[in-house]
């Protein structure tokens, strides 16, 4: 599931930003596309869910009203109720923090660890570069999802560990991109000039490398966020996250599938995952085009 | 995390999400909805008609992970299905506990209930052609009673081993069994699913070889034709079989040509497969589907076995459950009616003690474990557990923690543990649920006294054998980790297994139930239906014995 | 020339072998050095119910009483002689467990790869030749949409629709042709989306090249144009992507096998994770790394050969995904 490596491969830095054929429209007024606006709205909403679940969902996500089990979606329960009479909407909202924030943790680990590795490798070069390079090779050689599964099984089944595991599997991508950025900037004439003019490495780093790298790392981060949400959902689906009554989205789908007669138990969390990832990816696409 | 039951509030962000969702994923949603509503139309229930010979039956089951060593898996809820088809027993026990002849045509009991003489049916053979004679029976009884520790073969836990002296072949079809004390439980236990008759050749195999199902030779109506670990077991009928239990009223071989057990791990896949006609029987489907399935014309059998109710045995070695007050708080802190209402259907009944209602000695002890959360809180307060800021009680810096391991042997154990967790959380427990598959569960929980609460899903045929698992006397399982520290428990257990008449034994059993429940050793949940069989309407005639297993020797398909 | 090629091959093979070895070491370290030391803590945890004798045997076999480096050396030595150890849970040699599980998974991943390529090409064709107003935009959105759906959701939907509603396959026979095909679709969709994204980007790029304009002016049909002039040059970067995707298919098989009730490497991982059967896990990781490395090595070595044959015109500038010398370059993208 290291899908990120691919789209990044045609990032604007190494390729002309190709317009779709037949898309040679006259310069249009800069207008935010509807899909982008919607996507941003979704992202904002989800962050709000994660931070302030109680504001958005008033029903108890943990303790249900058993008499009200398996109610289909309706006015009182927008996404229906589950096998213990818990409000599914409320469970989804309260599960946002561990589903989405842990994806942020994962990306954070990827950016920081991978970024530092890439920076150091690119700057120092030589054997350091070789060591980092081989480490990254190893991380890339193991399928991302499998790597995450192994790490989480070594750390223990908790959502935070799933996040760490997902982060580990993202380190390689960030390391590569960061290293590439460093090398590119180093080769660029203005850096050479700067170095000649007596700029220290740190100066070069702060002044030239980071500002240049930030855009591609940011775009990659957002894209990786979508991937991480999927990976963490997959881990939760397999039962490697927090156990019930936690309500990670993947876990909700996993337990919902046991009740085929209540399709909303799968439908609702699945739709939420899809919409959120789709929105995150849309935002990421926009960032890469910018 | 405050929450109130609330009326719907059309929050603007949600509408935005809904709009986004409809724009972005209408297609997916439609596909999902279509896919989820599931359920191919069922055929109408058929009236059965007359039995038809021939035909094949496919049974879906979640696993055979406990392996095929008879002493280890004969009483497993999963493997037990197969053992029941490929082996016979000396007696047959019906769902009400009535004992009737099978391989033992008749038996005599001495007045002191210490010596039994079994008269065997003649002409019975194992599937390899060797006779099932008195010597073979003696070998089996010896193994059930004592196992073979040197080879790692364990005894059958609910066999009255404590008082077992010896068995001997008087002649080819007469066996004499002698006990050192009165043992009323002996004959009924011959119908227990641990008491399966296996060829002495198979018994002589090493533990490793015994794990190979194709080497297990029985005398049952079916024989193993092939099996693949983690995948399937295929049985074929024995054409020369003619010694089924008399009460089943079925002479000669099975109607079915083959029975195939196919492993399908996912619960919902099993029921959907039967619903859509891909298989004939699904073993264990979610109780919450039962009503709908029956409405569609499917037959759902929910046999209750003779034995213990479903409940938790509490280890007194696992702190804080070494404290009587904490155990009692637990005992009164579980709302069992809510569990029945939420997880189960009207096929399930409330427990009235730790013994199933179908057992003659059951009795009603509901008051000893009545739901009383206020009482529980008081007990916890008294025990020194003080509620902290997050609602979790603390004592000496330690939180009141409890880990539940939902047993993989009941399909409902996870939702039950979730409910129990909710209920206990309200009392100030911090409950964690850890799900394990069968091998990990067995590895981790078997005989492990550091685990506070473990599910009990155990059948027995005769209440006299109960004592054998409660304490550690004579190799008992010591369920509550009390060792010999509890004189009352020791005395009651010993007296029950040694009782020589049913009336005095019933009194002792009453006393035992009262005591064990009051001590919070055993925390009942509900009467158990461990085995749920979803059958396609074209399956007829399956019979169910006192251990609640389906018997397909009498079944046929349209 | 051939001598230089020989050196290149030897270097790549050496690198590949090194990566496999390092993967083994890395996994070993993750498993035995991470906080908590899973193996020993699992053995010592009274809740796990290992007998003292079990513990001693396992400790002796894996040299757990000695420093990590000694353990690593022992374990690495065994690995180099093809001994992957013994399952902690079933006491069966790991090689045997893998051997039993592998065929089904290979079948599944091969099917999935086929499906992925086919879907990707179909989508790519759509992006090039569907009129913009007649759904090209939608087709262009397909890959990213497909990448947003969790694979377990795809699996559940396909099983319920094709297995139960339409009855195309029976869940009781998950290895049947149809069942494998549908499972392959479930596993292949996310990968096909990735391939499609790269393919489309390259097609868009090729399209603007002079030789394509020339070919169009000669009146080639869309199909011919697509096949002869667009697809072939775009196939090169796709090769790199496919090589990477193989690893993902292996990882994805975990969920797909579980949802479709198949028995394979994925389910082996699942049971090993629940049972904390670390030797098995380690073996699967290394196996995945070997497959990945071999496939990528093959792709890297094939690349120069294909490049010379397929490239229709020297004027065609660099394709969009770098004409990677090595996988690493392709991944780095910006390198």
TrEMBL record, chain A:
It holds the Pfam family BPD_transp_1. Residues 96-284 form the ABC transmembrane type-1 domain. The chain crosses the membrane at residues 34-52, 100-124, 136-154, 160-178, 217-241, 261-280. It is found in: Cell membrane. Residues 1-24 are annotated as: Disordered. GO terms for biological process: transmembrane transport. This is Peptide/nickel transport system permease protein. It comes from Luteimicrobium subarcticum.
UniProtKB/TrEMBL annotation, chain B:
SUPFAM superfamilies: Periplasmic binding protein-like II (SSF53850). It comes from the Bacteria. One of its GO terms (cellular component) is ATP-binding cassette (ABC) transporter complex. Belongs to the bacterial solute-binding protein 5 family. It holds the Pfam family SBP_bac_5. This is Peptide/nickel transport system substrate-binding protein. GO terms for molecular function: peptide transmembrane transporter activity. It comes from Luteimicrobium subarcticum.
UniProtKB/TrEMBL annotation, chain C:
Gene3D superfamilies: MetI-like. InterPro entries: MetI-like (IPR000515), MetI-like_sf (IPR035906). The chain crosses the membrane at residues 12-34, 108-126, 138-159, 179-200, 235-260, 280-306. It comes from the Bacteria. It is found in: Cell membrane. Residues 102-303 form the ABC transmembrane type-1 domain. Keywords: Cell membrane, Membrane, Transmembrane, Transmembrane helix, Transport. GO terms for cellular component: plasma membrane. Pfam families: BPD_transp_1 (PF00528). The keyword Flavoprotein does not apply. It is a multi-pass membrane protein. One of its GO terms (biological process) is transmembrane transport. Its main location: membrane. Belongs to the binding-protein-dependent transport system permease family. This is Peptide/nickel transport system permease protein. It comes from Luteimicrobium subarcticum.
């Amino acid at each position: 599931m290291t899908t990120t490596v691919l789209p990044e491969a045609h990032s604007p830095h190494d390729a002309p930003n190709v317009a779709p054929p037949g898309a040679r429209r006259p310069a249009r007024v800069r207008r935010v596309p509807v899909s982008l606006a919607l996507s941003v709205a979704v992202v904002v909403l989800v962050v709000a869910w994660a931070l302030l679940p109680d504001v958005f969902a008033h029903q108890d996500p943990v303790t249900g009203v058993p008499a009200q089990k398996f109610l289909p979606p309706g006015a009182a329960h927008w996404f229906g109720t589950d096998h213990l009479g818990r409000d599914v909407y409320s469970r989804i909202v309260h599960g946002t923090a561990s589903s989405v924030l842990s994806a942020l943790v994962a990306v954070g680990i990827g950016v920081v660890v991978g970024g530092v590795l890439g920076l150091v490798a690119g700057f120092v070069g030589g054997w350091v570069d070789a060591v980092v390079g081989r480490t990254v090779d190893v991380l890339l050689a193991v399928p991302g999802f499998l790597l995450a599964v192994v790490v989480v099984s070594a750390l223990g089944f908790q959502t935070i560990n799933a996040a760490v595991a997902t982060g580990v599997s993202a380190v390689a991508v960030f390391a590569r991109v960061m290293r590439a950025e460093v090398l590119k900037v180093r080769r660029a004439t203005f850096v050479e000039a700067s170095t000649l003019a007596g700029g220290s490495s740190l100066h070069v780093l702060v002044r030239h490398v980071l500002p240049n790298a930030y855009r591609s790392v940011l775009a990659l981060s957002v894209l990786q966020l979508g991937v991480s949400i999927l990976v963490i959902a997959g881990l939760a689906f397999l039962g490697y996250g927090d156990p019930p009554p936690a309500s990670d989205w993947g876990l909700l789908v996993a337990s919902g599938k046991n009740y085929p007669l209540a399709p909303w138990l799968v439908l609702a969390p699945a739709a939420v995952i899809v919409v959120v990832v789709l929105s995150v990816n849309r935002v990421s696409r926009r960032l890469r085009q910018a | 995390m405050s929450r109130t039951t609330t009326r719907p509030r059309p929050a603007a962000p949600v509408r935005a999400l809904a709009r986004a969702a409809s724009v972005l994923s209408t297609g997916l949603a439609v596909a999902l909805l279509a896919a989820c509503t599931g359920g191919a139309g069922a055929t109408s229930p058929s009236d059965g008609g007359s039995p038809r010979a021939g035909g094949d039956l496919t049974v879906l089951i979640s696993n055979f992970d406990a392996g095929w060593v008879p002493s280890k898996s004969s009483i497993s809820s999963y493997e037990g299905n197969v053992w029941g088809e490929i082996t016979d027993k000396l007696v047959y026990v019906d769902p009400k506990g009535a004992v009737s002849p099978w391989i033992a045509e008749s038996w005599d009991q001495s007045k002191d209930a210490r010596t039994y003489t079994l008269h065997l049916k003649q002409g019975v053979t194992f599937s390899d052609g060797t006779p099932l004679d008195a010597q073979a029976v003696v070998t089996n009884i010896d193994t059930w009673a004592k196992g073979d520790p040197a080879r790692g073969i364990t005894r059958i836990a609910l066999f009255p081993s404590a008082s077992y002296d010896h068995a001997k072949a008087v002649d080819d079809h007469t066996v004499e069994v002698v006990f050192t004390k009165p043992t009323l439980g002996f004959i009924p236990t011959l119908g227990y699913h641990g008491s399966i008759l296996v060829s002495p050749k198979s018994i002589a195999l090493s533990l490793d070889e015994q794990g190979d199902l194709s080497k297990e030779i029985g005398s049952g109506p079916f024989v193993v034709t092939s099996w693949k670990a983690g995948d399937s077991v295929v049985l074929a009928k024995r054409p020369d079989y003619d010694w089924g239990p008399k009460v089943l009223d079925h002479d000669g071989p099975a109607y079915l040509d083959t029975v195939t057990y196919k492993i399908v791990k996912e619960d919902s896949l099993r029921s959907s497969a039967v619903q859509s006609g891909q298989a004939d029987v699904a073993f264990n489907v979610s109780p919450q589907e039962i009503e709908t399935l029956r409405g569609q014309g499917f037959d759902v059998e929910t046999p209750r076995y003779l034995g213990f109710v479903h409940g938790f045995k509490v280890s007194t070695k696992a702190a804080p459950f070494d404290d009587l007050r904490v155990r009692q708080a637990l005992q009164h802190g579980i709302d069992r009616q809510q569990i029945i209402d939420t997880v189960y259907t009207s096929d399930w009944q409330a427990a009235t003690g730790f013994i199933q209602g179908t057992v003659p000695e059951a009795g009603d002890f509901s008051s000893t474990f009545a739901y009383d959360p206020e009482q529980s809180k008081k007990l916890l307060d008294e025990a020194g557990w003080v509620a902290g800021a997050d609602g979790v009680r603390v004592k000496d810096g330690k939180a009141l923690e409890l880990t539940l391991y939902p047993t993989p042997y009941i399909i409902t154990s996870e939702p039950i543990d979730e409910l129990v967790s909710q209920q206990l959380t309200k009392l100030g427990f911090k409950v964690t649920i850890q799900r394990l598959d069968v091998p990990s569960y067995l590895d981790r929980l078997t005989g492990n006294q550091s685990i506070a609460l473990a599910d009990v899903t155990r059948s027995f045929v005769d209440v006299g054998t109960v004592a054998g698992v409660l304490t550690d006397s004579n190799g008992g399982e010591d369920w509550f980790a009390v060792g010999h520290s509890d004189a009352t428990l020791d005395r009651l257990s010993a007296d029950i297994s040694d009782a020589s008449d049913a009336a005095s034994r019933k009194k002792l059993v009453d006393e035992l139930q009262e005591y064990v429940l009051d001590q919070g050793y055993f925390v009942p949940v509900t009467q158990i239906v461990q085995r749920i069989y979803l059958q396609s309407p074209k399956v007829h005639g399956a019979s169910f014995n006192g251990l609640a297993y389906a018997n397909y020797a009498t079944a046929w398909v349209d | 020339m051939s001598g230089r090629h020989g050196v290149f091959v030897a270097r790549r093979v050496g690198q590949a072998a090194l990566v496999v070895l390092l993967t083994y070491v890395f996994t070993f370290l993750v498993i035995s050095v991470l906080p908590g030391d899973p193996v020993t803590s699992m053995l010592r945890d009274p809740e796990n119910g290992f007998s003292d004798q079990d513990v001693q045997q396992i400790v002796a076999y894996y040299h757990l009483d000695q420093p990590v480096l000694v353990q690593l050396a022992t374990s690495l030595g065994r690995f180099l002689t093809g001994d992957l150890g013994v399952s902690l849970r079933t006491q069966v040699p790991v090689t045997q467990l893998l051997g039993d599980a592998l065929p089904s998974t290979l079948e599944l991943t091969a099917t999935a790869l086929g499906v992925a390529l086919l879907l990707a090409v179909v989508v790519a064709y759509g992006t090039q030749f569907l009129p913009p107003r007649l759904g090209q935009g939608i087709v262009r959105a397909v890959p990213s949409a497909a990448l947003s759906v969790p694979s377990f959701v795809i699996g559940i939907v396909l099983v319920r629709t094709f297995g139960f509603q339409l009855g195309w396959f029976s869940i009781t026979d998950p290895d049947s042709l149809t069942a494998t095909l549908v499972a392959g679709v479930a596993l292949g969709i996310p990968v096909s989306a990735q391939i499609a994204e790269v393919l489309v980007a390259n097609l868009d790029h090729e399209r603007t090249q002079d030789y394509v304009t020339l070919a169009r002016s000669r009146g080639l049909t869309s199909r011919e144009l697509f096949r002869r002039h667009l697809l072939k040059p775009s196939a090169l970067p796709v090769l790199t992507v496919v090589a990477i995707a193989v690893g993902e298919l292996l990882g994805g098989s975990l969920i797909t096998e579980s949802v479709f009730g198949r028995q394979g490497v994925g389910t082996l991982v699942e049971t090993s994770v629940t049972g904390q059967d670390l030797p098995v896990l380690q073996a699967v990781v290394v196996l995945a790394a070997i497959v990945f490395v071999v496939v990528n090595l093959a792709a890297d070595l094939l690349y120069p050969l294909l490049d010379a044959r397929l490239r229709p015109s020297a004027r065609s500038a660099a394709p969009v995904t770098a004409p990677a010398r090595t996988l690493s370059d392709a991944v780095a993208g910006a390198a």
